[in-house]
Amino acid sequence: MIEYFGTGSKFQDHSQKNTDSRKKQKTKHKIGSKTYSQLSFEKRNLETGEEPDCIVLWELTHTKNGTWSNTESQDVYVSTLTFWLFYSYSTMCIRHATTSAGIIHALDRVILVSSFILSILMPH
Q1: Mean pLDDT for back-to-back runs of 10 residues, the chain (124 residues)
Q2: Is residue 2 part of a domain?
Q3: Distance between CA 19 and CA 4 in Å, rounded?
């Protein structure tokens, strides 16, 4: 490797920068050297060819036997899932509301459902 990359300060500086960046990463995946796209392809639905969405892929790559790689990875999953559920439910409620009062009522339901979802995903 030394013959290919050399021992110059430019290579060492670049290597040190990469090392420092890896130390700053807060989330840890559990798929080794396999790429996300490779895992996504392997986990696709064989009948439809549909690959897992980003939230499912995150869970697949950051858990092993149902255990999260670390708390930060689980927190990213929970916050992303919560946002997605909130957005989906909000969009559905508002789309079906036809008056201002209906929209306000829909938003009240969204807040109630969001609180419920958070209580399930992040128990105290």
Answers
A1: 67 82 83 91 96 92 92 91 81 76 76 75 63
A2: no
A3: 20
SS3 at position 20: helix
pLDDT at position 2 is 62
Number of domains in the chain: 2
In three-state form (DSSP H/G/I as H, E/B as E, the rest C), the secondary structure along 25-68 is CCCCCCCCCCCHHHHHHHCCCCCCCCCCCHHHHHHHHHEECCEE
Burial class (CB in 10 A: 0-12, 13-18, 19+), 62: buried
Domain span at residue 111 reads 70-124
Asked whether the beta carbons of 61 and 54 are under 8 A apart, the reply is: no
Rounded to whole angstroms, what are the CA distances from 119 to 47, 98, 99, 114, 122?
36, 30, 30, 9, 5
Global pTM? Answer: 0.64
pLDDT for position 37: 93
